[in-house]
């Protein structure tokens, strides 16, 4: 694959660092540098692309901020590999009522293929009748269920996902997405709303049906901006917290 840039007229109007960003991101998405692999040095990238070193650095800065790559002191820049700790820190936004950080375990209760529901199809930009892998999961601290989740993943993208049912998961789901299916979750958009607990959710959370609970709808996106996960999390005991920077 040639390293040099060949921008068309419309692309050429964009800042050069953004062209370099898109070029490098495209190669990462294509699997040229899998998670954990190091990119060539900034000097090599600049020389191969025919751009200034500062342009490459700015493009890499953008990729770092987007959670695509990470700089490792003294070693270079590597494609980000999800770990459970990193996934919880970046994507788990529920805290205790006192603001304390919660580190729950996850247990998938059911996993089956089915037709995407209307909300799932909209969120994942799927055609009518498209199939998803549907997971039901509880997140616990000890024996206490704090979060009940329903997750829809588009098929065949997630056809290789290996999720043990009825067991505590050793890894976060985003780690499994990347390891089993080559899908890296780069960002997520959450929408929070109140809801009355349905009977099944109430049983899971150990509350009475109709209890006011928090509903968090998440659409997670892959490196190329495609929606890869539709998730609805429900909790009666945790708060939703995000940092605005």
Give an overview of the whole structure:
The chain has 245 residues and is α+β, with helices and mostly antiparallel strands. 29% of the residues lie in helices and 31% in strands. α2 crosses α4 and α3 crosses α4. The relative contact order is 0.14. The protein has two domains: 71 residues, Winged helix-like DNA-binding domain superfamily/Winged helix DNA-binding domain (Arc Repressor Mutant, subunit A); 157 residues, 3-Layer(aba) Sandwich (Chorismate lyase), CATH 3.40.1410.10. The strands form three sheets. A six-stranded antiparallel sheet has the order 4-5-6-9-8-7. It has a two-stranded antiparallel ribbon with strand order 1-2. It has a two-stranded antiparallel sheet with strand order 3-10. The two termini are 38 Å apart. It is built from eight helices and ten strands.
Please outline what is shown here:
By secondary structure, the protein is an alpha+beta fold.
Looking at the structure, what is the overall shape? elongated
Name given to the CATH architecture of the largest domain:
3-Layer(aba) Sandwich
Count of DSSP E strands?
10
- Count up the helices: 8
Major beta sheet, strand line-up: 4-5-6-9-8-7
Give the helices and strands, then pairings.
Blueprint: H1 9-12, H2 16-29, H3 42-49, H4 53-65, E1 69-72, E2 76-79, H5 84-91, E3 94-95, E4 105-115, H6 118-124, E5 131-141, E6 144-154, H7 173-181, E7 185-196, H8 199-205, E8 212-222, E9 227-235, E10 239-240
Antiparallel strand pairs: 1-2, 3-10, 4-5, 5-6, 6-9, 7-8, 8-9
